[in-house]
Fold this protein.
Amino acid sequence: MGTKPYRYRCGDPGHLADKLDATKVTRPTAQGRVYRMNGRGVSCPNESFQGECEISCNILTVLFYSGATHSFILMDCVNLLKLYAITLLFDLSVTTAADKTLTTNTTCMYCFVVVLGRKFIVNLICLPLKNLDVIIGMDGLSYNFILLDCGRKTVIFRPRAF
């Protein structure tokens, strides 16, 4: 006799697409952290400062923030700049300073960002930011060998050590 049909996500025999709601597939969740979600006031003045960056030939407000585990972009910017966004295979829960948890699963992978004439690549997770367009967190800083001189409010680009 023939083989039983499989549903795409589940892979279990007999779980047909028309019975999709019968078995709920849960998505894995990853954790992230960002303690400053808006451009007003500084909750941690010694680990962040604001500046400008360029993405897709547009000048955006950027926060360089070592207190964020990931890098983020305002979803409105993604739409306005027509950036290519993908859906992650997991949900990312991001905790803010007010202990508010935001969940997202959308990201822009391998975005070219220009700061002070230097071009680098960052993965930007889409979040509802306020008064900011982009947050460059520790993932983007460390991957690109970018140091923050918080006293002078400057970024230092280190050469890659290959």
Notes: The first helix runs from residue 75 to 81. Residues 29-157 form a domain with the Cathepsin D, subunit A; domain 1 fold (CATH 2.40.70.10). The two ends are 58 Å apart (CA to CA). The CA atoms of residues 42 and 49 lie 8 Å apart.
